[in-house]
Design brief:
single chain; 240 residues; alpha/beta; Rossmann fold; 7-stranded parallel beta sheet; 7 strands; 41% helix; 3-oxoacyl-[acyl-carrier-protein] reductase (NADPH) activity; NAD(P)-bd_dom_sf
């Protein structure tokens, strides 16, 4: 029987790589996101289906349920953003802007993950897999983005207990990963080189590295792995 997966934020970067890997694994994949043109192109190129909605909007998530699979074997929560990298900034003393920045990161990373998961839990198959994408920033810190990713880890612990005996729930936490839009052209060559020097492996990750980790956690071989964080960062968890 063919398994079915939903990958949020599946149009580009890490999400696209994850979706493509799962398709290669023989899984029927539905990617989601807010940009229909991007989703349509990716879906056609990798052999997936797509559904357009904003994962931070409860009404949009609810409305999308009619288009999402009736049974979900694998849910990958990849949708999220670093609001500072997207141009949202807070200057010293501007408390209103600071609040907007922190709530923006919490909403885009945590709320999106919680809403989609809760909406699809009734459809989660026996022996299902929920895999959420965290970040090395969740343990090393990074403005308002790091705490948001750390919150996903804590939430996942509770989720794993809730699903015990029925399904697994894990987090994949990438380190520096190139070939994505994450840095939004804000990373200088000097800063890039410095970040790479801090990675014990001596090289940054690429989306396929993260996709391979997700593929493992989605496989039968990971049936006894739950409530965990799988770091994919070239040894950079604590830096050198």
């Amino acid at each position: 029987m063919t398994l079915t997966a939903v990958v949020t934020g599946g149009g580009t970067g890490i999400g696209r790589a994850i979706a493509a890997q799962l398709v290669s694994d023989g899984v029927s994949v539905v990617i989601t996101g807010r940009r229909p043109d991007v989703l349509a192109t990716t879906a056609a190129e990798i052999g997936a289906k797509y559904v357009t909605f904003d994962a931070t909007d409860p009404a949009a998530v609810q409305a999308a349920l009619d288009e999402l699979p009736a049974t979900v074997d694998i849910l990958v929560n990849n949708a999220g953003a670093n609001m500072a990298r997207q141009g949202l900034a807070a200057t010293a003393g501007d408390l209103a802007a600071l609040k907007k920045l922190w709530l923006g990161d919490y909403e885009s990373n945590v709320i999106s993950t919680v809403l989609v998961t809760e909406a699809l839990l009734p459809r989660l198959a026996e022996n299902g897999r929920i895999i959420s994408i965290g970040s090395i920033a969740g343990v090393r810190g990074s403005g308002s983005y790091g705490p948001a990713k750390a919150a996903i880890v804590t939430w996942n612990v509770e989720l794993a207990k809730k699903l015990a005996g029925r399904a697994t729930a894990n987090v994949v936490a990438p380190g520096m990963t190139v070939e994505t839009d994450f840095f939004n052209n804000t990373l200088s060559d000097e800063r890039r080189d410095q970040l790479i020097k801090e990675i014990p492996s001596g090289k940054p990750g690429v989306p396929s590295d993260v996709a391979a980790a997700v593929s493992y956690l989605a496989s039968p071989g990971a049936r006894h792995v739950t409530g965990q964080v799988l770091h994919v960062n070239g040894g950079g968890h604590n830096g050198r």
